[in-house]
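Onboarding guide, step 5: your first structure request.
Type a short instruction followed by the sequence, for example:

Predict the 3D structure of this protein.
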Amino acid sequence: MSRPPLERMLFLHERMRAKRYPNCRFVAEHFEVSTRTIKRDVEFMVDRLGLPIDYDRRRYGFYYTRPVEQFPHVSLTEGELFSLLVAKKAIEQYRGSPFHQPLESAFSKISSQLGQQLGLIADRLDQAMSFHPFAPDASNPELFGSLYSAIHNHQVTKIGYRNLGQKTVKVRRIHPYHLACVDNRWYLIALDVEKAGIRNFLLPRIQTVEATDESFVIPKTFDIDQHLKGGFGIFQDGGDHHVSIRFDAWASELIQERVWHPSQVITPLAHGESRLELDVKSLIEIERWVLSWGDHATVEGPARLIESIRQKLATMAARYSPATEGTSARPGSGCG
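The system replies with structure tokens like these:
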């Protein structure tokens, strides 16, 4: 879905006020809408808001024929104002990310045009709704910006990356394709030139970013939705796994309240139990998820997943057995 017309018109206003001569094509690409949509926005600004807009054929862009400092007051319905404030609340999901401050700034600019009515609804909304993101990544805004620039400009890039469990940082030569937030964590989707394959790089593990003068072309076959399709999270091992899990009566009600995966099929069983079946590309995250349900979940297949969980449970049982009580904890596992 495209962003609201008000945001597009404010974008046009700021560009024209700064004499940057925006045109329909540029703005349409920025907001990922059609040029016809932008033309309608400009017509609205002229006909309904009375703004002095003209087109400069030499600079191929729109401009103000006289100074305009403030964008005209826009009248919104209470429902539209409420929706805008819900979006403001959702900004909290990005706290700790490089998006948080720019989003706050953008909302302040928009809200300054909407008058006292917005404040009254905001007070009511503060009492009724909030967002509490769980453990967001502590991303580096400058690093994030460098990656976004490299993606936008199609620049071959060198990143210093530390794999999980390793202390050394290795330089990887990549073609950066996309930035994705999956399960509240940011990943860079990129072609690893040396390994000749698309990899998912977790942003907090990227130590350095160096864009080169060399450019690349993103293959037309690359589609982020297809790339992530089938995964239970971000991990993919190239396999196709049909997973079947039986949940007891207590967990079944919780399972049925959410969409865990696009392929899921939930079958009611006797005594209030249920079976969840889904097809995934990796067993790493589904294993962690199953373990989080404790004895409320029982994996019925595949055998590989059953065996992996059996081994982990055996290790955990040994760790917490009476024979190990009072022994020294492993380094780093205590509260010292």
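Each response can be followed by summary notes, for example: The chain is about 35% helix and 20% strand.
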